[in-house]
Amino acid sequence: MRRQQFYDANTRQQLTPREAIVLSAAKNYKPVDDIANTLHIPQSIVLRHLSNIINKLNTSDQKLAHQLVYVYKLTTND
Fold it and tell me: What is the CA radius of gyration of the chain?
C-alpha cells in the first residue's frame, strides 16, 4: 500500500529537514508538547517551525495551511 502524500511535492523541497519532521507529526495532530519532547526542542521552537511551514504552505497547499492554523491555534502573517 502506497503512503498518501499530504502536501505538494514542491512544498517538501521548500521545507528544512526539521520542518518536514514537524509537519509529519502535525499531520497526525500530535500535541505541540509531544512533538517538542520527541525532538528534544522547546515548544516555542515547534511553534516557530509550524509558523514557518504555514507561511510556506500558503503558496502551495492552502487547505493544509488552514488546517494547521486551526488545529494549533496559530496566526498567519498575511
Answer: 12
The CA distance from 38 to 28, in Å, is 14
Return the residue matching grid coordinates 488545529: 71
**CA–CA distance, 53 with 56 (Å, rounded to integer):** 5
Instruction: Return the CATH architecture of domain 15-72.
Output: Orthogonal Bundle (1.10)
**Cα 54 to Cα 64: distance, rounded to the nearest angstrom:** 8
CA nearest to 54, candidates 40, 39, 64, 41: 64
pLDDT digits (tens, 9 = 90+) for 9-31: 565 667 888 998 998 898 888 99
